[in-house]
UniProtKB/TrEMBL annotation:
Keywords: Methyltransferase, Transferase. CDD domains: AdoMet_MTases (cd02440). One of its GO terms (biological process) is methylation. This is Class I SAM-dependent methyltransferase.
């Protein structure tokens, strides 16, 4: 429990100071997955939706015109305030903001028709608890749509990739593999409806700057990437010139599940 509490405190610290960056982030605000999310979920005007770890509020904003109400939760109060200001300015009047822990949601059983969680679960110390909580608050037949960065099943390769994330962002816990997520979903009684994997390319400097990384963090992260096995660098398509990292890729999994 102490480890989990420390991890959550790190998330609040890291994202509290970078809340505005995540509202403005191009990769978070304009991904094609936001349109695809609506296509997959096919939300109804009567639906009650829960957006877990809303971050900059981009999923809540996408859902807002299509449902009766969106409840946007986040562990970090500063992030909720930034998301609230963003959505108020966008005219989203049916979004309620509630501070909440993804692993201990403050809602009754069967409170929602839809649950979403985008690019956040790698910050959760106990992903199994998150999956079980998502199942608990959904009505029978309700839908969960999750999007998150994933790693290969190879233990050494996934450990290297997760170490890069941890150097960049101390609040990072662990990216899981698709197979690990599938096992958790199956245990919680979810049925996978559809999924896709896509690769996302990031320019190294803006990717680091979004987390307000220090110069030391940048140097350490860059050195660690460049010291990695050539096969590992190839797996994540690391582009380096003159001993400097220019860009790298991350695999992202989007999955729709039914309770």
């Amino acid at each position: 429990m102490k480890h989990e509490d420390e991890a959550k405190a790190a998330v609040q610290s890291q994202f509290g100071k970078n809340a505005a960056n995540y509202v403005a982030s191009e990769s978070h605000a304009k991904g094609d997955d936001l349109e695809l999310l609506i296509q997959w979920l096919q939300p109804k005007a009567s639906d009650r939706a829960l957006d877990i770890a809303t971050g900059g509020g981009h999923v809540s904003k996408a859902l807002s015109p299509h449902v009766q109400q969106v409840v946007a939760t986040d562990l970090t109060a500063e992030m909720l305030r930034a998301a609230s200001a963003h959505l108020r300015a966008a005219g989203c009047e049916n979004v309620l903001f509630v501070r909440g822990d993804a692993e201990r949601l403050p809602f009754l059983e069967g409170a929602f028709d839809l649950v979403t969680c985008r690019i956040a679960p790698h910050h959760f110390p106990n992903p199994q608890a998150f999956v079980e909580e998502a199942a608990r608050v959904l009505v029978p037949g309700g839908q969960l749509l999750m999007i998150d960065n994933v790693v290969p099943t190879d233990a050494k390769l996934s450990a290297w990739r997760n170490r890069i994330e941890k150097l960049r962002d101390p609040s990072h816990v662990r990216c899981l593999s698709i197979e690990e997520w599938q096992a958790l979903f199956q245990q919680a009684g979810f049925v996978e409806v559809r999924s896709r994997v896509r690769r996302k390319s990031f320019s190294f400097l803006p990717w680091m700057e979004r987390m307000s990384c220090t110069d030391e963090q940048m140097r350490e992260t860059e050195a660690f990437i460049l010291a990695g096995d050539a096969a590992w660098q190839d797996q994540f398509r690391v582009v380096a010139e003159g001993g400097r990292v220019k860009s790298l890729e991350i695999e992202e999994w989007m999955v729709l599940l039914k309770k």
